[in-house]
Protein 1
Amino acid sequence: MYFAHDTEVALVAAAALVNTMTNDVDELAEPPALGRFLDEHAYTGRRDGTTAELTAVRGLRAELWELWRTGDAAVLVARVNELLERTGARPQLVRHDGWDWHLHVTDPAAPLVDRMGAEAAMALVDVVRGDDLHRLRTCAADGCRAVLVDLSRNSSRRYCDTGNCANRTHVAAYRARRRDEATARPVVRRAGRAPQPGLTARSEP
Ligand SMILES: [Zn+2]
Ligand SMILES: [Zn+2]
Protein backbone atom coordinates (compact mmCIF):
# COMPACT_ATOMS: atom_id res chain seq x y z
CA MET A 1 0.00 0.00 0.00
CA TYR A 2 1.49 3.34 -1.03
CA PHE A 3 -1.14 5.85 0.14
CA ALA A 4 -3.68 5.37 2.94
CA HIS A 5 -6.27 2.76 2.01
CA ASP A 6 -9.16 5.16 1.45
CA THR A 7 -6.94 7.48 -0.59
CA GLU A 8 -6.02 4.59 -2.88
CA VAL A 9 -9.65 3.53 -3.27
CA ALA A 10 -10.63 7.11 -4.15
CA LEU A 11 -7.78 7.56 -6.65
CA VAL A 12 -8.57 4.26 -8.37
CA ALA A 13 -12.25 5.25 -8.58
CA ALA A 14 -11.34 8.71 -9.94
CA ALA A 15 -9.11 7.14 -12.63
CA ALA A 16 -11.89 4.69 -13.48
CA LEU A 17 -14.35 7.58 -13.81
CA VAL A 18 -12.02 9.42 -16.19
CA ASN A 19 -11.53 6.19 -18.14
CA THR A 20 -15.25 5.81 -18.80
CA MET A 21 -14.61 8.35 -21.57
CA THR A 22 -10.96 8.58 -22.58
CA ASN A 23 -10.94 6.12 -25.44
CA ASP A 24 -13.77 7.77 -27.36
CA VAL A 25 -16.67 5.60 -26.22
CA ASP A 26 -18.75 7.15 -23.45
CA GLU A 27 -19.46 4.32 -21.05
CA LEU A 28 -21.67 6.63 -19.01
CA ALA A 29 -24.19 7.32 -21.74
CA GLU A 30 -27.30 6.66 -19.61
CA PRO A 31 -28.17 6.92 -15.89
CA PRO A 32 -28.24 3.11 -15.41
CA ALA A 33 -24.62 2.93 -16.60
CA LEU A 34 -23.70 5.40 -13.86
CA GLY A 35 -25.54 3.17 -11.36
CA ARG A 36 -23.43 0.20 -12.43
CA PHE A 37 -20.25 2.26 -12.14
CA LEU A 38 -21.21 3.30 -8.60
CA ASP A 39 -21.96 -0.30 -7.63
CA GLU A 40 -18.67 -1.47 -9.04
CA HIS A 41 -16.77 1.11 -7.01
CA ALA A 42 -18.87 0.63 -3.87
CA TYR A 43 -20.18 4.20 -3.65
CA THR A 44 -22.66 4.57 -0.81
CA GLY A 45 -25.18 7.38 -0.18
CA ARG A 46 -27.67 9.30 -2.25
CA ARG A 47 -28.30 8.47 -5.90
CA ASP A 48 -30.97 10.29 -7.93
CA GLY A 49 -30.61 8.23 -11.10
CA THR A 50 -31.54 11.30 -13.14
CA THR A 51 -30.12 12.72 -16.34
CA ALA A 52 -29.19 15.88 -14.41
CA GLU A 53 -27.12 13.82 -12.00
CA LEU A 54 -25.41 12.03 -14.87
CA THR A 55 -24.64 15.31 -16.65
CA ALA A 56 -23.08 16.69 -13.47
CA VAL A 57 -20.91 13.58 -13.02
CA ARG A 58 -19.81 13.81 -16.66
CA GLY A 59 -18.73 17.40 -15.97
CA LEU A 60 -16.71 16.22 -12.99
CA ARG A 61 -15.17 13.53 -15.16
CA ALA A 62 -13.88 16.12 -17.66
CA GLU A 63 -12.54 18.19 -14.78
CA LEU A 64 -10.69 15.23 -13.25
CA TRP A 65 -9.19 14.34 -16.61
CA GLU A 66 -7.67 17.82 -16.83
CA LEU A 67 -6.41 17.62 -13.26
CA TRP A 68 -4.81 14.26 -13.96
CA ARG A 69 -2.90 15.52 -16.93
CA THR A 70 -1.76 18.89 -15.65
CA GLY A 71 1.61 17.76 -14.22
CA ASP A 72 1.80 21.21 -12.62
CA ALA A 73 1.51 21.21 -8.82
CA ALA A 74 0.42 24.86 -8.62
CA VAL A 75 -2.42 24.28 -11.08
CA LEU A 76 -3.47 21.10 -9.32
CA VAL A 77 -3.46 22.79 -5.92
CA ALA A 78 -5.66 25.64 -7.12
CA ARG A 79 -8.15 23.25 -8.74
CA VAL A 80 -8.22 20.87 -5.78
CA ASN A 81 -8.83 23.72 -3.34
CA GLU A 82 -11.59 25.03 -5.56
CA LEU A 83 -13.14 21.57 -5.78
CA LEU A 84 -13.00 21.11 -1.99
CA GLU A 85 -14.74 24.42 -1.48
CA ARG A 86 -17.38 23.92 -4.19
CA THR A 87 -18.31 20.43 -3.00
CA GLY A 88 -18.52 21.49 0.64
CA ALA A 89 -15.98 18.89 1.78
CA ARG A 90 -16.34 18.23 5.49
CA PRO A 91 -14.04 15.36 6.48
CA GLN A 92 -15.33 12.99 9.17
CA LEU A 93 -13.73 9.78 10.40
CA VAL A 94 -16.17 6.88 10.20
CA ARG A 95 -16.14 3.12 10.64
CA HIS A 96 -18.86 0.96 9.06
CA ASP A 97 -19.70 -2.31 7.30
CA GLY A 98 -16.42 -3.96 8.22
CA TRP A 99 -14.33 -1.01 7.01
CA ASP A 100 -12.01 0.32 9.67
CA TRP A 101 -11.53 4.07 10.29
CA HIS A 102 -11.60 6.05 7.08
CA LEU A 103 -12.66 9.48 5.91
CA HIS A 104 -16.07 10.38 4.62
CA VAL A 105 -15.76 13.83 3.21
CA THR A 106 -19.38 14.83 2.65
CA ASP A 107 -22.80 14.07 4.03
CA PRO A 108 -24.35 10.89 2.53
CA ALA A 109 -27.38 12.99 1.50
CA ALA A 110 -25.25 15.50 -0.46
CA PRO A 111 -25.57 15.37 -4.27
CA LEU A 112 -23.60 12.53 -5.85
CA VAL A 113 -21.37 14.83 -7.90
CA ASP A 114 -20.31 16.68 -4.75
CA ARG A 115 -19.53 13.48 -2.90
CA MET A 116 -17.54 12.06 -5.82
CA GLY A 117 -15.75 15.37 -6.34
CA ALA A 118 -14.92 15.87 -2.67
CA GLU A 119 -13.62 12.34 -2.35
CA ALA A 120 -11.38 12.70 -5.38
CA ALA A 121 -10.18 16.10 -4.15
CA MET A 122 -9.29 14.73 -0.69
CA ALA A 123 -7.31 11.93 -2.29
CA LEU A 124 -5.52 14.44 -4.52
CA VAL A 125 -4.62 16.37 -1.35
CA ASP A 126 -2.52 13.36 -0.33
CA VAL A 127 -0.94 13.20 -3.78
CA VAL A 128 0.12 16.84 -3.52
CA ARG A 129 1.32 16.59 0.09
CA GLY A 130 3.44 13.53 -0.71
CA ASP A 131 4.90 15.18 -3.85
CA ASP A 132 3.50 12.26 -5.84
CA LEU A 133 2.15 14.07 -8.89
CA HIS A 134 4.21 11.81 -11.16
CA ARG A 135 2.03 8.91 -9.98
CA LEU A 136 -0.91 10.33 -11.90
CA ARG A 137 -0.15 9.03 -15.37
CA THR A 138 -1.48 8.49 -18.83
CA CYS A 139 -1.17 4.98 -20.22
CA ALA A 140 2.12 4.38 -22.06
CA ALA A 141 0.54 2.14 -24.72
CA ASP A 142 0.37 3.49 -28.27
CA GLY A 143 -3.02 4.96 -29.05
CA CYS A 144 -4.37 4.65 -25.48
CA ARG A 145 -5.40 7.81 -23.66
CA ALA A 146 -6.60 6.17 -20.44
CA VAL A 147 -5.23 7.40 -17.12
CA LEU A 148 -3.88 5.42 -14.22
CA VAL A 149 -2.62 5.96 -10.71
CA ASP A 150 0.63 4.21 -10.00
CA LEU A 151 0.36 2.66 -6.52
CA SER A 152 3.45 0.46 -6.81
CA ARG A 153 6.25 1.01 -4.31
CA ASN A 154 8.92 1.45 -6.95
CA SER A 155 6.74 3.65 -9.16
CA SER A 156 6.95 1.22 -12.07
CA ARG A 157 3.43 1.04 -13.43
CA ARG A 158 3.07 2.30 -17.02
CA TYR A 159 -0.14 0.82 -18.42
CA CYS A 160 -3.82 1.31 -17.67
CA ASP A 161 -6.15 -1.54 -16.86
CA THR A 162 -9.01 -0.51 -19.14
CA GLY A 163 -7.99 -2.96 -21.82
CA ASN A 164 -5.07 -5.18 -22.39
CA CYS A 165 -2.46 -2.45 -22.83
CA ALA A 166 0.51 -3.98 -20.98
CA ASN A 167 0.09 -7.32 -22.71
CA ARG A 168 -0.59 -5.75 -26.11
CA THR A 169 2.56 -3.61 -25.81
CA HIS A 170 4.75 -6.50 -24.71
CA VAL A 171 3.54 -8.69 -27.56
CA ALA A 172 4.22 -5.86 -30.05
CA ALA A 173 7.71 -5.34 -28.60
CA TYR A 174 8.42 -9.07 -28.78
CA ARG A 175 7.31 -9.22 -32.43
CA ALA A 176 9.43 -6.18 -33.26
CA ARG A 177 12.45 -7.82 -31.62
CA ARG A 178 11.91 -11.03 -33.59
CA ARG A 179 11.61 -9.02 -36.78
CA ASP A 180 14.85 -7.14 -36.02
CA GLU A 181 16.67 -10.38 -35.26
CA ALA A 182 15.43 -11.98 -38.47
CA THR A 183 16.63 -9.05 -40.58
CA ALA A 184 19.85 -8.50 -38.58
CA ARG A 185 21.22 -12.03 -38.86
CA PRO A 186 22.15 -12.14 -42.57
CA VAL A 187 23.81 -8.71 -42.25
CA VAL A 188 26.04 -10.01 -39.45
CA ARG A 189 26.99 -13.05 -41.46
CA ARG A 190 27.86 -11.00 -44.51
CA ALA A 191 30.03 -8.69 -42.42
CA GLY A 192 31.84 -11.80 -41.16
CA ARG A 193 33.38 -10.11 -38.16
CA ALA A 194 34.83 -12.31 -35.47
CA PRO A 195 34.03 -11.29 -31.90
CA GLN A 196 36.67 -8.89 -30.65
CA PRO A 197 38.39 -10.25 -27.55
CA GLY A 198 39.01 -6.78 -26.16
CA LEU A 199 35.29 -6.17 -25.74
CA THR A 200 34.76 -9.12 -23.43
CA ALA A 201 38.03 -8.82 -21.48
CA ARG A 202 36.33 -7.31 -18.46
CA SER A 203 34.19 -10.37 -17.85
CA GLU A 204 37.26 -12.63 -17.63
CA PRO A 205 38.97 -13.25 -14.31
ZN1 LIG B 1 -17.23 4.47 4.13
ZN1 LIG C 1 -4.03 1.77 -21.87
Note: The two ends are 44 Å apart (CA to CA).
Protein 2
Amino acid sequence: MNLNLKGKSVLVTGASKGIGKAIAEAFAAEGSRVALNARNADDLAKVVDEINHNGGEAIAVAADVTDAHDVELMVSEVVSRFGTIHVLVNNAGGVGQFARFEELTDEDWLSVMNLNLFSAVRVTRAVLPHLRRQKWGRIINISSESGTQPDAEMPHYNASKAAMNNLTKSLSKSYALEGILVNTVSPAFIMTPLVSEMLDKQAKAQGIDPADAEKQFLATKRPHIELHRSGTPEEVAEEVAEIERVLKAAGSIGCRVSNSADASFRILAVLGKALEVLDDPLAVHLRWRSYRIGCPAGGAQENRA
Ligand SMILES: NC(=O)c1ccc[n+]([C@@H]2O[C@H](COP(=O)([O-])OP(=O)(O)OC[C@H]3O[C@@H](n4cnc5c(N)ncnc54)[C@H](OP(=O)(O)O)[C@@H]3O)[C@@H](O)[C@H]2O)c1
Protein backbone atom coordinates (compact mmCIF):
# COMPACT_ATOMS: atom_id res chain seq x y z
CA MET A 1 0.00 0.00 0.00
CA ASN A 2 1.38 3.45 -0.86
CA LEU A 3 1.01 5.61 2.23
CA ASN A 4 3.38 8.37 1.01
CA LEU A 5 6.03 7.27 3.48
CA LYS A 6 8.66 6.00 1.06
CA GLY A 7 12.06 7.57 1.74
CA LYS A 8 10.86 9.40 4.84
CA SER A 9 13.14 9.30 7.91
CA VAL A 10 11.29 8.02 10.93
CA LEU A 11 12.38 7.86 14.58
CA VAL A 12 10.42 5.49 16.82
CA THR A 13 11.18 5.49 20.55
CA GLY A 14 10.70 2.31 22.57
CA ALA A 15 10.98 0.22 19.42
CA SER A 16 12.67 -3.01 20.53
CA LYS A 17 9.41 -4.65 21.62
CA GLY A 18 5.65 -4.47 21.57
CA ILE A 19 3.87 -1.59 19.87
CA GLY A 20 7.02 0.40 19.01
CA LYS A 21 8.61 -2.59 17.28
CA ALA A 22 5.49 -3.19 15.20
CA ILE A 23 5.34 0.52 14.27
CA ALA A 24 8.99 0.51 13.17
CA GLU A 25 8.37 -2.61 11.07
CA ALA A 26 5.28 -1.05 9.48
CA PHE A 27 7.17 2.12 8.44
CA ALA A 28 10.06 0.00 7.12
CA ALA A 29 7.58 -2.04 5.06
CA GLU A 30 6.36 1.25 3.52
CA GLY A 31 9.92 2.08 2.41
CA SER A 32 10.75 4.57 5.17
CA ARG A 33 14.20 4.72 6.73
CA VAL A 34 13.64 3.86 10.35
CA ALA A 35 15.71 4.66 13.46
CA LEU A 36 14.73 2.40 16.34
CA ASN A 37 15.34 3.49 19.91
CA ALA A 38 15.30 1.60 23.23
CA ARG A 39 17.75 1.23 26.13
CA ASN A 40 18.82 -2.36 25.59
CA ALA A 41 21.21 -2.37 22.59
CA ASP A 42 21.12 -6.17 22.15
CA ASP A 43 17.32 -6.28 21.86
CA LEU A 44 17.44 -3.39 19.40
CA ALA A 45 20.15 -5.01 17.26
CA LYS A 46 17.99 -8.12 16.79
CA VAL A 47 15.00 -6.12 15.52
CA VAL A 48 17.15 -3.88 13.30
CA ASP A 49 18.90 -6.91 11.77
CA GLU A 50 15.55 -8.54 11.07
CA ILE A 51 14.19 -5.40 9.33
CA ASN A 52 17.34 -4.99 7.22
CA HIS A 53 17.36 -8.71 6.41
CA ASN A 54 13.79 -8.34 5.11
CA GLY A 55 14.82 -5.55 2.72
CA GLY A 56 14.09 -2.56 4.96
CA GLU A 57 16.45 0.22 6.02
CA ALA A 58 16.86 0.50 9.78
CA ILE A 59 19.40 1.71 12.31
CA ALA A 60 19.57 1.31 16.09
CA VAL A 61 19.94 4.29 18.40
CA ALA A 62 20.22 3.00 21.95
CA ALA A 63 19.30 5.74 24.43
CA ASP A 64 17.30 6.32 27.58
CA VAL A 65 14.57 8.84 26.71
CA THR A 66 14.38 9.90 30.36
CA ASP A 67 17.92 11.29 30.03
CA ALA A 68 18.23 14.66 28.27
CA HIS A 69 21.84 14.11 27.19
CA ASP A 70 21.02 10.68 25.75
CA VAL A 71 18.15 12.23 23.80
CA GLU A 72 20.38 14.93 22.28
CA LEU A 73 22.91 12.30 21.21
CA MET A 74 20.18 10.05 19.81
CA VAL A 75 18.66 12.77 17.62
CA SER A 76 22.11 13.95 16.41
CA GLU A 77 22.97 10.36 15.48
CA VAL A 78 19.76 9.89 13.47
CA VAL A 79 20.23 13.21 11.67
CA SER A 80 23.86 12.45 10.86
CA ARG A 81 22.90 8.99 9.46
CA PHE A 82 19.64 9.92 7.66
CA GLY A 83 20.16 13.64 6.94
CA THR A 84 16.98 14.65 8.72
CA ILE A 85 13.90 13.35 10.53
CA HIS A 86 10.43 13.59 9.00
CA VAL A 87 8.33 11.52 11.38
CA LEU A 88 8.72 11.14 15.13
CA VAL A 89 6.78 8.48 17.00
CA ASN A 90 6.92 9.08 20.76
CA ASN A 91 6.07 5.56 21.86
CA ALA A 92 8.40 4.75 24.79
CA GLY A 93 6.32 4.48 27.92
CA GLY A 94 5.24 2.26 30.73
CA VAL A 95 2.79 1.89 33.56
CA GLY A 96 5.09 1.78 36.57
CA GLN A 97 3.10 -0.01 39.29
CA PHE A 98 -0.38 -1.39 38.77
CA ALA A 99 -1.40 0.30 42.01
CA ARG A 100 -4.09 2.42 43.58
CA PHE A 101 -3.63 6.08 44.48
CA GLU A 102 -2.80 5.58 48.16
CA GLU A 103 -0.04 3.11 47.34
CA LEU A 104 1.89 5.52 45.10
CA THR A 105 4.71 7.77 46.29
CA ASP A 106 5.92 11.06 44.81
CA GLU A 107 8.81 9.10 43.30
CA ASP A 108 6.37 6.74 41.55
CA TRP A 109 4.50 9.71 40.09
CA LEU A 110 7.66 11.51 38.98
CA SER A 111 9.10 8.39 37.43
CA VAL A 112 5.98 7.63 35.33
CA MET A 113 5.60 11.29 34.32
CA ASN A 114 9.25 11.34 33.34
CA LEU A 115 8.95 8.24 31.18
CA ASN A 116 5.57 8.90 29.56
CA LEU A 117 5.32 12.67 29.34
CA PHE A 118 8.72 14.32 29.68
CA SER A 119 10.35 11.81 27.33
CA ALA A 120 7.96 13.03 24.61
CA VAL A 121 8.68 16.64 25.57
CA ARG A 122 12.45 16.07 25.38
CA VAL A 123 12.50 14.12 22.13
CA THR A 124 10.05 16.51 20.47
CA ARG A 125 12.17 19.50 21.54
CA ALA A 126 15.27 17.92 19.99
CA VAL A 127 13.52 16.89 16.75
CA LEU A 128 11.38 19.99 16.18
CA PRO A 129 14.08 22.26 14.68
CA HIS A 130 14.61 19.70 11.91
CA LEU A 131 10.88 19.51 11.14
CA ARG A 132 10.57 23.31 11.15
CA ARG A 133 13.57 23.74 8.85
CA GLN A 134 11.99 21.49 6.20
CA LYS A 135 8.47 22.86 6.87
CA TRP A 136 7.13 19.33 7.03
CA GLY A 137 6.84 16.88 9.84
CA ARG A 138 4.63 14.42 11.64
CA ILE A 139 4.72 13.73 15.36
CA ILE A 140 2.64 10.81 16.58
CA ASN A 141 2.34 10.40 20.31
CA ILE A 142 1.34 6.97 21.53
CA SER A 143 -1.10 7.80 24.27
CA SER A 144 -3.66 5.43 25.77
CA GLU A 145 -7.38 5.07 26.19
CA SER A 146 -6.52 5.58 29.88
CA GLY A 147 -5.81 9.22 29.07
CA THR A 148 -9.52 9.83 28.48
CA GLN A 149 -11.11 6.81 30.20
CA PRO A 150 -9.01 6.13 33.30
CA ASP A 151 -9.30 3.02 35.45
CA ALA A 152 -9.26 3.27 39.24
CA GLU A 153 -5.73 1.87 39.25
CA MET A 154 -2.58 3.56 37.95
CA PRO A 155 -3.72 7.18 38.34
CA HIS A 156 -0.15 8.33 37.66
CA TYR A 157 -0.14 6.52 34.32
CA ASN A 158 -3.65 7.74 33.42
CA ALA A 159 -2.70 11.34 34.25
CA SER A 160 0.52 11.10 32.23
CA LYS A 161 -1.43 10.04 29.15
CA ALA A 162 -4.08 12.74 29.69
CA ALA A 163 -1.24 15.27 29.83
CA MET A 164 0.18 13.79 26.64
CA ASN A 165 -3.18 14.31 24.90
CA ASN A 166 -3.24 17.91 26.07
CA LEU A 167 0.36 18.51 25.00
CA THR A 168 -0.45 17.06 21.59
CA LYS A 169 -3.28 19.52 21.14
CA SER A 170 -1.07 22.47 22.09
CA LEU A 171 1.66 21.36 19.73
CA SER A 172 -0.77 20.79 16.89
CA LYS A 173 -2.09 24.33 17.29
CA SER A 174 1.41 25.80 17.44
CA TYR A 175 2.89 24.12 14.41
CA ALA A 176 0.10 23.02 12.02
CA LEU A 177 0.58 26.06 9.79
CA GLU A 178 4.27 25.20 9.49
CA GLY A 179 3.34 21.83 8.01
CA ILE A 180 3.96 19.92 11.22
CA LEU A 181 0.99 17.82 12.26
CA VAL A 182 0.87 16.39 15.75
CA ASN A 183 -1.49 13.58 16.70
CA THR A 184 -2.09 10.88 19.23
CA VAL A 185 -2.96 7.27 18.68
CA SER A 186 -4.60 5.83 21.77
CA PRO A 187 -4.41 2.06 22.05
CA ALA A 188 -6.73 0.14 24.34
CA PHE A 189 -5.66 -3.34 25.50
CA ILE A 190 -2.80 -4.62 23.34
CA MET A 191 -0.89 -7.84 23.96
CA THR A 192 2.73 -6.73 24.36
CA PRO A 193 5.47 -7.70 26.84
CA LEU A 194 4.18 -4.89 29.08
CA VAL A 195 0.68 -6.39 29.21
CA SER A 196 1.71 -10.03 29.33
CA GLU A 197 4.00 -9.31 32.30
CA MET A 198 1.12 -7.57 34.07
CA LEU A 199 -1.21 -10.54 33.38
CA ASP A 200 1.46 -13.04 34.49
CA LYS A 201 1.75 -11.22 37.83
CA GLN A 202 -2.01 -11.19 38.29
CA ALA A 203 -2.24 -14.88 37.36
CA LYS A 204 0.50 -15.79 39.83
CA ALA A 205 -1.08 -13.77 42.64
CA GLN A 206 -4.39 -15.60 42.13
CA GLY A 207 -2.97 -19.01 41.27
CA ILE A 208 -4.66 -19.04 37.86
CA ASP A 209 -3.56 -19.44 34.25
CA PRO A 210 -2.38 -16.24 32.39
CA ALA A 211 -5.03 -16.90 29.71
CA ASP A 212 -7.69 -16.87 32.45
CA ALA A 213 -6.18 -13.66 33.87
CA GLU A 214 -6.64 -12.10 30.42
CA LYS A 215 -10.28 -13.25 30.24
CA GLN A 216 -10.86 -11.88 33.73
CA PHE A 217 -9.26 -8.52 32.82
CA LEU A 218 -11.41 -8.24 29.70
CA ALA A 219 -14.59 -9.13 31.60
CA THR A 220 -14.00 -6.82 34.57
CA LYS A 221 -11.94 -3.93 33.17
CA ARG A 222 -12.76 -3.88 29.46
CA PRO A 223 -16.35 -5.16 29.15
CA HIS A 224 -16.99 -2.83 26.22
CA ILE A 225 -14.37 -4.33 23.95
CA GLU A 226 -16.81 -5.90 21.54
CA LEU A 227 -14.42 -8.49 20.15
CA HIS A 228 -13.62 -9.75 23.67
CA ARG A 229 -9.95 -10.01 22.87
CA SER A 230 -6.80 -7.98 23.24
CA GLY A 231 -5.47 -6.14 20.19
CA THR A 232 -2.12 -6.90 18.57
CA PRO A 233 0.83 -4.50 18.21
CA GLU A 234 0.50 -4.92 14.43
CA GLU A 235 -3.07 -3.62 14.52
CA VAL A 236 -1.92 -0.46 16.29
CA ALA A 237 1.03 -0.09 13.90
CA GLU A 238 -1.34 -0.24 10.94
CA GLU A 239 -3.22 2.77 12.34
CA VAL A 240 0.00 4.72 12.93
CA ALA A 241 1.48 4.05 9.51
CA GLU A 242 -1.80 5.02 7.87
CA ILE A 243 -1.85 8.40 9.56
CA GLU A 244 -0.76 10.25 6.46
CA ARG A 245 -3.63 8.81 4.42
CA VAL A 246 -6.08 9.42 7.25
CA LEU A 247 -4.95 13.05 7.67
CA LYS A 248 -5.46 13.65 3.96
CA ALA A 249 -8.92 12.10 4.12
CA ALA A 250 -9.87 14.16 7.16
CA GLY A 251 -8.57 17.31 5.47
CA SER A 252 -10.40 16.58 2.25
CA ILE A 253 -13.79 16.27 3.89
CA GLY A 254 -13.11 19.46 5.83
CA CYS A 255 -13.52 18.06 9.31
CA ARG A 256 -14.02 21.08 11.48
CA VAL A 257 -15.73 20.32 14.71
CA SER A 258 -16.15 22.85 17.44
CA ASN A 259 -15.88 21.46 20.89
CA SER A 260 -15.52 22.94 24.30
CA ALA A 261 -14.68 20.25 26.80
CA ASP A 262 -11.84 17.80 26.49
CA ALA A 263 -14.08 14.75 26.27
CA SER A 264 -16.45 16.14 23.67
CA PHE A 265 -14.61 14.72 20.71
CA ARG A 266 -16.76 14.21 17.67
CA ILE A 267 -16.19 10.82 16.13
CA LEU A 268 -16.27 10.50 12.39
CA ALA A 269 -15.89 7.35 10.39
CA VAL A 270 -13.56 8.02 7.50
CA LEU A 271 -12.35 5.19 5.31
CA GLY A 272 -13.73 2.78 7.84
CA LYS A 273 -11.60 4.21 10.62
CA ALA A 274 -13.01 5.78 13.72
CA LEU A 275 -11.59 9.25 14.16
CA GLU A 276 -11.95 11.72 16.93
CA VAL A 277 -11.53 15.10 15.34
CA LEU A 278 -10.53 17.93 17.61
CA ASP A 279 -11.44 21.57 17.08
CA ASP A 280 -8.50 22.03 14.74
CA PRO A 281 -9.08 20.49 11.30
CA LEU A 282 -5.47 19.43 11.17
CA ALA A 283 -5.43 17.88 14.60
CA VAL A 284 -6.90 14.45 14.25
CA HIS A 285 -6.99 12.31 17.33
CA LEU A 286 -7.18 8.68 16.37
CA ARG A 287 -8.71 6.38 18.88
CA TRP A 288 -7.64 2.83 18.46
CA ARG A 289 -10.56 1.46 16.43
CA SER A 290 -13.04 2.65 19.01
CA TYR A 291 -15.94 0.94 17.34
CA ARG A 292 -14.36 -2.25 16.20
CA ILE A 293 -12.28 -3.15 19.23
CA GLY A 294 -14.30 -0.97 21.54
CA CYS A 295 -13.37 1.09 24.54
CA PRO A 296 -14.33 1.06 28.19
CA ALA A 297 -17.65 2.25 29.56
CA GLY A 298 -18.60 5.71 28.40
CA GLY A 299 -15.85 5.73 25.77
CA ALA A 300 -16.79 6.20 22.16
CA GLN A 301 -20.47 6.44 22.91
CA GLU A 302 -20.03 9.19 25.46
CA ASN A 303 -17.71 11.12 23.19
CA ARG A 304 -20.11 10.92 20.29
CA ALA A 305 -22.19 13.95 21.23
N1 LIG B 1 0.10 -2.49 25.56
C1 LIG B 1 -1.02 -1.79 25.77
O1 LIG B 1 -2.10 -2.35 26.00
C2 LIG B 1 -0.98 -0.31 25.70
C3 LIG B 1 -2.21 0.37 25.81
C4 LIG B 1 -2.22 1.75 25.73
C5 LIG B 1 -1.04 2.45 25.55
N2 LIG B 1 0.15 1.77 25.45
C6 LIG B 1 1.36 2.58 25.26
O2 LIG B 1 2.09 2.09 24.16
C7 LIG B 1 3.49 2.32 24.36
C8 LIG B 1 4.26 1.02 24.17
O3 LIG B 1 3.75 0.06 25.07
P1 LIG B 1 4.11 -1.49 24.95
O4 LIG B 1 2.97 -2.20 25.58
O5 LIG B 1 4.54 -1.84 23.58
O6 LIG B 1 5.38 -1.55 25.96
P2 LIG B 1 6.54 -2.66 26.14
O7 LIG B 1 6.13 -3.94 25.57
O8 LIG B 1 6.93 -2.60 27.59
O9 LIG B 1 7.74 -2.04 25.29
C9 LIG B 1 8.33 -0.84 25.72
C10 LIG B 1 9.46 -0.42 24.81
O10 LIG B 1 9.96 0.83 25.28
C11 LIG B 1 11.36 0.73 25.58
N3 LIG B 1 11.65 1.62 26.71
C12 LIG B 1 11.20 1.54 27.97
N4 LIG B 1 11.72 2.52 28.71
C13 LIG B 1 12.53 3.25 27.89
C14 LIG B 1 13.38 4.37 28.08
N5 LIG B 1 13.50 4.96 29.28
N6 LIG B 1 14.08 4.85 27.02
C15 LIG B 1 13.96 4.27 25.80
N7 LIG B 1 13.19 3.19 25.57
C16 LIG B 1 12.48 2.69 26.61
C17 LIG B 1 11.57 -0.78 25.89
O11 LIG B 1 12.91 -1.21 25.66
P3 LIG B 1 14.06 -1.08 26.80
O12 LIG B 1 13.48 -1.68 28.05
O13 LIG B 1 15.25 -1.84 26.26
O14 LIG B 1 14.37 0.38 26.95
C18 LIG B 1 10.64 -1.38 24.83
O15 LIG B 1 11.25 -1.37 23.57
C19 LIG B 1 3.62 2.92 25.77
O16 LIG B 1 3.70 4.32 25.68
C20 LIG B 1 2.32 2.50 26.44
O17 LIG B 1 1.93 3.39 27.47
C21 LIG B 1 0.20 0.42 25.53
Note: The pocket of NAP is lined by residues 13-20, 37-40, 43, 64-66, 91-94, 115, 142, 144, 187, 189-190, 192-195 (CB under 6 Å).
